[in-house]
Amino acid sequence: MAELLLILVSAIFVNNFVLARFLGICPFLGVSKKVETALGMGMAVTFVMTVATVVTWFIQYFILIPFGIEYLQTIAFILVIASLVQLVEMVIQKTSPVLYQSLGIFLPLITTNCAVLGLAVLNIQKDYSFLEGVVFALGAALGFTLAMILFAGLRERVDLCPVPKSFRGTAIALITAGLLSLAFMGFAGLVKG
Amino acid sequence: MLAAILSLGAIGLLAALALGVAAKKFAVEVDPRELAILELLPGANCGACGYPGCAGYAKMVANGDKIAATCRPGGAAVMTKIANIMGFAPISVDPKVAVVMCQGDNSKASDKYKYLGLADCQAAQKIADGPKQCPGGCMGLGPCERTCPFGAIEMTADNLAVISRKKCTGCGKCVAACPRDVIKMTPLDATVHVLCNSHDKGALVRKYCEIGCIACQICKKQAPDAYEIENFLATVVYEHYDQAAAAVEKCPTKCIRDFMISYPEGSSFAEVTVPLRRKDEAA
Amino acid sequence: MAMGRLKTFPGGLHPADNKQWTAAKPIEDCPLPEALVIPLSQHIGAPAELCVAVGDLVKKGQMLGQAKGFVSVPVHASTSGEIVAIEPRLHPSGRLLPSVVIKPDGDDVWLENLPAADPHALSAEQIKDRLRDAGIVGLGGATFPAHVKLSPPEEKPIDCLIINGVECEPYLTADHRLMLEDPEKVLQGVDILRQVLHVNHVYIGIEANKPDAIQLMTEKCAGTDVQVVPLEVKYPQGAEKQLILAITGREVPSGCLPMEVGVVVQNVGTAAAVADAIVNGYPLIERICTVTGSGVSEPKNLRIRIGTPLQHLVDYCGGLSGDPAKLIMGGPMMGMTQLSLEVPATRGTSGLLIFRDGDIDLHEEGPCIRCARCVRACPANLLPTTIAAYSRLDMFEEAEQHHAMDCIECGCCSYSCPSLIPLVQTLRHAKGAILEKRRKM
């Protein structure tokens, strides 16, 4: 139990996928202008990450390893992730057209999002059991969502300030992200690995 | 080898099946014409058409049996293409541009009080009708510049708003932002304008502004069809815009300007010697 | 004086009092000027509708314009004389608005058959009608028609009347002197107001920087159940909602009026005017005004006739001292800056402040440094810095969500801002835009 809790805390805070591992920067910067969109994106990513972990875990241990074709890991994982994202896209388009419009191009970009593939691969690398893998995925997704929401809140505030012309837009966003990353470094050392 | 092909193939097939089913279950009706129209629109979401953004306009056009409003920033080129997609008769659009009818900046017009406050003309207007002595002149605090979605307005160093005829698409947002109605929509072809918005008598105008219209009637004498004087202010009759240039030289206060020759003093927009039309407009 | 801590409200500021210039000076009657300029719009609500013509000879107290609609009051002649003009004249708002110009005949004769009466013989409705006809408006500066304030809808029962003797604005001492010199009239007015509202609880709130007034009013109220409540000296203690919170502990909910918590607040000056209107039948044609500031030679408290040009008041106070750089009608926190001394004093003119060049800060505004002094100072518990930021970006929906409409425009935020950001103006801008949008919908 304590192990699982440690994995969760580590994935959310100590080794936050966006702020410590620097994966998934694309949607992090692209969808974090408003807190509502950030939340919507976070939920989509949570779903994709969790289901992707489950499916890829099974594929790794029941197909790839038994048949000795571990070298197909990357392509198999991408295949699964791409299908899942397509599914999520269709569901969101049907159930919440507004969210679909506001996420725009970033929804299909979850496919090539290094955070999702990174999660799947890290799971295998760390030799996690099925349960540990799922908890790790949940933690990673929650951490991703947390980072996005925090950043969206920060960006909304920064937008109210008279930012110097040369810093407006992406420049100040990256600086803010860097500062947020620095803040999360405060968690470093809490959990080993 | 075989295992690899089979396993990957199996995963792919399963995924395809699942997606196929999902595609049917979660199908959303999208009119391809709506998407095509959306592609053509400028994408500025300026709201000049009266619909919620370009997406709203595209929806209206695709759903309706006639086009209820024109897209001003898109202009004639875009409207023609849209009409083609929908199979309607071509729609004519008179290209218009906004012009600030004032040249009374800080160096030329006087103030009635020193204004220290929010840099917004609507806010300043609420305080004893604005810091300028002229009741109709441009106060130069910039809400028009901030609201222009195309970046066509600049504020000169002496606090005067000037609009670029190249960048202006005629969407009209600046007209709504100005509390004194100094900005007027004019036909793109008309390049001569009387840049004054004060209806005060000439003697009074002279007291507070060097470059205001004093309704001396000289312009009307030079080009009787092109000018009309109403309530102590001359304006160009745009139906006869081509005759207005004759009076520019004769105006004693130099409040009449031909934009084909130059922009108001202090403006960074370039002096031009060719007609100032947008490149996509047919001659 | 009072044992223990005085009652107060959260937030607020302590600007320098500056009342020592005039606090000890008895009220003097300001003589009539050569011409009185009486605007038809001196109150909240529809301007009065003209009912006289050029050339008419009018008596003191005669109606010049009738009330238009419910939220409106008539306007009266402040002295007897001839109407020499009816034209747009400079008004405290900075605009030219329709005004009646009267040349006094020197006799100062009241209109005949003024409706004097014994208040106890009148019903509440009759009293309210007479108050409207007498043009009684809130003399604290807001000029809201009294008869409207005294007519809350039935769903909002009133159980408490608070008389505002706080006068929290720096420099002003008009209400203070009124309480010292004519407490009986004030209490007579309080009785009449109480009669109209049928309330059990009556309080008179006075700030602790007026110990003589507190003592005198307490003495005069001995034996009655009118309670004099000394309050901590803090700006804006005299603002309605803050006064109610301090005295009764009730908080007026966001977006609501005092009637929501069963309270009506009236200024001491209004109470005195109510007494005059009912007992003597006098319409509101004069008020007490403090003329002070470094730009005036002899600061004084004056009893002025409505319509007296500000220049005349200054002349009676020894004239200007040095070159005036700023003229304020009202108090320095919420008063209106004037462009010229030709403006006439109206029913809302509680004070005239004149300052010289060295006294005012002309620095340009700087950037917001997030010091949150404005947040600490705001008596309405708002976030002025955030609302102002939204207002500047035209994000009025977000400004409304942050309760911009609850701003009482007291000026605490602008006063406390070290960067001299015009916060009140920016908030007002947001409020104006929000109201505009509501009107359109």
In short:
The complex is a heterotrimer of chains A (193), B (283) and C (441). With 283 residues, chain B is an alpha+beta fold.
Give structural notes.
In chain A, 70% of the residues lie in helices and 0% in strands. Chain A starts with a helix and ends in a 9-residue tail after the last helix. Chain A has 193 residues and is an all-alpha fold. Chain A has 8 helices and no strands. The model of chain A has no long low-confidence stretch (mean pLDDT 87). The relative contact order of chain A is 0.21. Chain A is globular and about 60 Å long. In chain A, helix 1 runs parallel beside helix 7 and helix 3 runs antiparallel to helix 4. Chain B has 283 residues and is of the alpha+beta class. In chain B, the strands form 4 sheets. In chain B, strands 1-4 form a two-stranded antiparallel ribbon. Chain B has 9 helices and 8 strands. Chain C starts with 27 loop residues before the first strand and ends with a helix. The longest helix of chain C has 18 residues. Chain C is built from 13 helices and 17 strands. Chain C is an alpha/beta fold. Helix content of chain C is 27%, strand content 20%. Chain C folds into 3 domains: 147 residues, Roll (Ubiquitin-like (UB roll)); 162 residues, NADH-ubiquinone oxidoreductase 51kDa subunit (Rossmann fold, 3-Layer(aba) Sandwich); 68 residues, no CATH class. The chains are: A mainly alpha (193), B alpha+beta (283), C alpha/beta (441). Chains in contact: A-B, A-C, B-C.
Distance between the amino and carboxyl termini of chain B? 67 Å
Major pleated sheet of chain C: 6 strands, mixed
| CATH homologous superfamily classification of the largest domain in chain C | NADH-ubiquinone oxidoreductase 51kDa subunit
Structural class of chain B: alpha+beta
CATH class of the largest domain in chain B: Alpha Beta
Provide the residue-averaged pLDDT of chain B: 85
Overall 3D shape of chain C: globular
Biggest interface reads: A-B, 21 and 16 residues
Shape of chain B: elongated
